[in-house]
Amino acid sequence: MIEKTNDKIVTIFGGSKCSPNSPEYLQAKDLGARLAEAGFTICTGGYLGVMEAASRGAREKGGRVFGIVMNQFKGEPNRYLTDKVATDHFYDRLQNLIMRSVGFVALRGGMGTVTEISLVWNKLQTRVLDKRPLVLLGDCWKEVVRSWQENLVVSNSDVSLLDFANNAEDACRIIVEKSRSVVL
């Protein structure tokens, strides 16, 4: 588990398979840099793609970066981490990504990203987590959420727990504004 620190931690979720010139990678790198400059510690799953990009952006601005890695995974964590927390189980990994964070940002990814968003969102809905920002960054999310509303039991009240951002600047602004009142 991440030790209790006075750091304001923001967890960034997103795909591991995007390339360094993809829109997600570039947005995540920009976001990591902006959040580090705003005084936040970054937390990611610790591997490649969006996780590496956010870590890289933060480190290039002198920020602290937690990587929550899995002992079962064969891949090496990205080189931009300042701290690594190894876990044995997916649920432990998810808990470490979620419980110490004052806010969350998700970029386009796969089913792992959907799982992470779903768990955070459900914890916010059920008030297991006190109110904190869950920002969906990128063009794809409004359509995805609209599809969930059309095909699943997702209400407007549920959607009101989400914030949408078009770019890293907007996502950072939302995190800064909405995380001020979060007490861990």
Describe the structure.
The chain has 184 residues and is α/β, with parallel strands linked by helices. It has a single domain (8-179), classed as Rossmann fold. It has seven helices and seven strands; from the N terminus they run E-H-E-H-E-E-H-E-H-E-H-H-E-H. The chain has helices at 23-37, 50-60, 90-98, 111-125, 140-151, 156-159, 168-179, and strands at 8-13, 40-44, 65-70, 83-87, 101-106, 134-137, 163-165. Helix 1 packs parallel to helix 2 and helix 1 packs parallel to helix 7. The model has no long low-confidence stretch (mean pLDDT 95).
Tags for this entry?
single chain, 184 residues, alpha/beta, Rossmann fold, 42% helix
Label the CATH architecture.
3-Layer(aba) Sandwich
Indicate the proportion of strand residues: 15-25%
The fold-level CATH name is Rossmann fold
Output the radius of gyration.
Answer: 15 Å
Roughly how much helix do the residues carry, as a percent range? Answer: 40-55%
Main sheet attributes: strand count, strand direction, barrel closure: 7 strands, parallel
Counting H and I runs of at least 4 residues, what is the number of helices?
7
CATH hierarchy class name? Alpha Beta
Task: Write down the secondary-structure element order.
Answer: EHEHEEHEHEHHEH
Backbone structural class: alpha/beta
Q: Give the CA-based shape.
A: globular
Write down the domain tally.
1
End-to-end C-alpha gap:
15 Å
Mean of all residue-level pLDDT scores: 95
Strand order of the largest sheet: 4-3-2-1-5-6-7
Number of strands: 7
Unreliable spans:
none
